[in-house]
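Example (one chain per record):
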Amino acid sequence: MIGSVENAVPSCTTVDLLRHGHCAGGDIFRGCGSDSSLTEKGWQQMSDALAGLSGWQQIVTSPLQRCRSFAAASAHTLNIPLKEDNHWREIDFGCWEGEPVEAVWGRWPEQVAAYFINPDQSTPHGGECLAAFQQRVQQGWRRLLGDYRNQHILLVQHGGTMRLLLTLLFNRPIAAMSRLVVPYGCLMRLKVWHLPNRDYVFLMPHKKGE
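Predicted structure:
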């Protein structure tokens, strides 16, 4: 089916989603309020993910340094434009922000469990509710496709934004986002075929040399 769509519809936007690598600061609730830097290991994870790949015409990145630093270096090396987009920053964890995950689980076990089971019904005190997060990511996706239609984009972002985006694009229940595993340095490719009445999104394998 994918092959027939590719042959029939030449209009396509390719978006490679890259999560940042391992960060300094340990195992914490690392949201938009925790501007952690990449470790050497994290930088290598991202480099390894992109090894053998090419063809990007634009890099878009979260403004947080764990994404931006690698994105800026890559844009410089590849001599392609870089744009920071605040839509792709991580969710705000409120009172959990920057706190060790183990400590937060120990202090608020019921609240943390509820957050991961039904994230649309539970928000840490002072944090960003899922409805606002969802609206932000959807706006970022629409802007990306509008600004870079028919181009090949590298989108450097976070685990939370990647899980939410995939959940929305493939029409899964919002609670399913917590069960998607997106490790450090994870790379996924989306092909968006632009048909007259709507877009069709496919999750594609990567092929080295493309």
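Caption: Residues 2-204 form a domain with the Rossmann fold fold (CATH 3.40.50.1240).
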